[in-house]
């Protein structure tokens, strides 16, 4: 009867009235053969379980080791200990699973994040990762709630696809053909028509193009799923497998798109603040401890919670790409040659440029619009100037690009012309072009990188620490 247990979070929020309760969890520490700090993953706050001296036999006490799993039934009583309202006076203790403390890789002390990345299979059992992944869960839930409340349809776009939505060619190939001796065409190239899918396929880099099919029927859809990019970048912001949320809206222009993205980001942050106050407080403290290691001048002005509060209460800055380049060209950083990469109209801004804009210049999230068409995807709507497209990227302090989006090119002639210029074969995207053939409408959408959002909310510096099983170059053990 496992469902008779109470979760420790719920128990800690109740009043101690000598009620009988059963809890189950893992031992964090066991002191003086008397006090067990028990954790069940519902909160970072451990339940203190008190064993009356002499009541339990020695053999059982020996088996209460760090990370052993227990079932404890007892009486909930007020606690005299500091910082805890109640504790559980044990009547029965049952060992569900033993743990050899000598071999258990985690000690009851603070481990470095690097160390924990190597122990990724156990790191959920630490306070830091407990907090991060409960917040990640809340954000995911808030995302569905936000779009559901607005009447968007959740569309499941394919993972295996033949399309390269971003045209960037960073795809993982998927094939059922044998590697050692695949069927070949006369010219020696692999014959993908013999494949299970009848053609060359890859893991999706974005669900957007299929999302547009949904939006031009349902009006408003969103996707929320795994996305794959075979880019060989080892940075604190890139994963080979990440999750993306892609809303797509018919009857929507660039401004509507920006308004929705801003409202959405503010909503999900506020949701986490309202539902994960304990975990955010834990991470706030953690960051403050980290900041103390830095020289005064480099410490951030706001703590994690103040930062989140600020972002939910203030409008994002909105500037054009051309204005952004002008700001960079006039910046002290540029004049003192502090940028590693070149700054001029037409560049794809590097993270140092984006971070200058948000962290030094505006000190808030910034939406940059109307990028040069050369550095953006084929589907973005062309502006009247002939040089720019109706794109928008949202840049966040500490992260850089967190959202990429645009109004889409709904005019068939302009779209096919651009595809030709970019050598994208119209035959392969016939199904996509049908949206423009049969009742085309102005429409727009964006993609939020979920892990970058989780990084922003938790304040974690490395993207590998906000996804359960990070996939980065040479890293896919389990
Ligand atoms: O800017 P991106 O490439 O845009 C698209 O894929 C569009 N189809 C979105 C749309 O309009 N529906 O990616 C969108 C976001 C980025 O802003 C970034 O936050 C995240 O996805 N992202 C990554 N996150 C982690 N690791 C990577 N390798 C990422 N690449 C993009
Ligand atoms: Mg982008």
UniProtKB/TrEMBL annotation:
GO biological process, one term: asparaginyl-tRNA aminoacylation
A matching Pfam family: tRNA-synt_2
Principal subcellular localisation of the protein: cytoplasm
InterPro entries in the cross-refs: Aa-tRNA-synt_II, aa-tRNA-synth_II, aa-tRNA-synth_II/BPL/LPL, Asn-tRNA-ligase, Asp/Asn-tRNA-synth_IIb, NA-bd_OB-fold, NA-bd_OB_tRNA
Aminoacyl-transfer RNA synthetases class-II family profile domain location: 133-470
Catalysed reactions listed for this entry: tRNA(Asn) + L-asparagine + ATP = L-asparaginyl-tRNA(Asn) + AMP + diphosphate + H(+)
Main enzyme class: ligase
Subcellular location: Cytoplasm
Signal peptide: none
Gene3D superfamilies associated with the record: Bira Bifunctional Protein, Domain 2, Nucleic acid-binding proteins
GO terms of molecular function: asparagine-tRNA ligase activity; ATP binding; nucleic acid binding
SUPFAM superfamilies: Class II aaRS and biotin synthetases, Nucleic acid-binding proteins
Domain of life of the source: Bacteria
EC number in record: 6.1.1.22
Record keywords: Aminoacyl-tRNA synthetase, ATP-binding, Cytoplasm, Ligase, Nucleotide-binding, Protein biosynthesis
Record GO cellular component, one term: cytoplasm
Subunit structure: Homodimer.
Similarity remark: Belongs to the class-II aminoacyl-tRNA synthetase family.
Protein name: Asparagine--tRNA ligase
Gene: asnS
């Amino acid at each position: 009867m496992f469902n008779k247990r109470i979760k420790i979070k719920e128990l800690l929020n109740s009043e101690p009235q000598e009620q009988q309760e059963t809890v189950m969890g893992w031992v964090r520490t066991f002191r003086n053969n008397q006090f067990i700090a028990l954790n069940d993953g519902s909160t970072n706050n451990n339940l203190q379980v008190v064993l009356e001296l002499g009541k339990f036999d020695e053999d059982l006490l020996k088996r209460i080791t760090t990370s052993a799993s227990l079932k404890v039934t007892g009486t909930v009583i007020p606690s005299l200990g500091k910082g805890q309202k109640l504790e559980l006076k044990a009547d029965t203790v049952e060992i569900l699973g033993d743990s050899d403390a000598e071999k258990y890789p985690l000690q009851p002390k603070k481990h470095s994040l690097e160390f924990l990345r190597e122990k990724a299979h156990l790191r959920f059992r630490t306070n830091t990762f407990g907090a991060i992944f409960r917040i990640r869960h809340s954000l995911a839930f808030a995302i569905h709630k936000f779009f559901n409340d607005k009447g968007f349809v959740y569309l499941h776009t394919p993972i295996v696809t033949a399309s390269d939505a971003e045209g960037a060619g960073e795809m993982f190939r998927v094939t059922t053909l044998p590697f050692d001796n695949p069927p070949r065409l006369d010219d020696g190239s692999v014959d993908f028509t013999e494949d299970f899918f009848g053609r060359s396929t890859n893991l999706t880099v974005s669900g957007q193009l299929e999302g547009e099919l949904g939006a031009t029927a349902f009006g408003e859809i969103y996707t929320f799923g795994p996305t794959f990019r075979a880019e060989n970048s080892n940075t604190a912001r890139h994963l080979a497998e990440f999750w993306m949320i892609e809303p797509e809206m018919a009857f929507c222009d660039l401004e509507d798109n920006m308004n929705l993205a801003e409202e959405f980001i503010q909503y999900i942050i506020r949701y986490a603040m309202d539902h994960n106050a304990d975990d955010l407080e834990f991470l706030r403290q953690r960051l403050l401890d980290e900041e103390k290691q830095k020289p005064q001048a480099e410490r951030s002005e706001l703590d994690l919670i103040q930062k989140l509060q600020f972002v939910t209460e203030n409008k994002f800055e909105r500037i054009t790409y051309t204005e952004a380049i002008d700001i960079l060209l006039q910046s002290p950083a540029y004049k003192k040659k502090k940028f590693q990469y070149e700054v001029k109209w037409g560049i794809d801004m590097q993270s140092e440029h984006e971070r200058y804009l948000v962290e030094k210049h505006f000190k808030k999230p910034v939406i940059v619009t109307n990028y040069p068409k050369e550095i953006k995807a084929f589907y973005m709507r062309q502006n009247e100037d002939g040089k720019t497209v109706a794109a928008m990227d949202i840049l966040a302090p500490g992260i850089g690009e967190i959202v990429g989006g645009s109004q889409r090119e709904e005019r068939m002639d302009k779209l096919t012309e651009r595809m030709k210029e970019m050598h994208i074969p119209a035959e392969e995207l016939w199904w996509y072009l049908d949206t423009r053939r049969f009742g085309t409408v102005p429409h727009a959408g964006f993609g939020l990188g979920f892990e970058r959002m989780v990084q922003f909310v938790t304040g974690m510096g490395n993207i590998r620490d906000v996804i359960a099983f990070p996939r980065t170059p040479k890293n896919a053990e389990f």
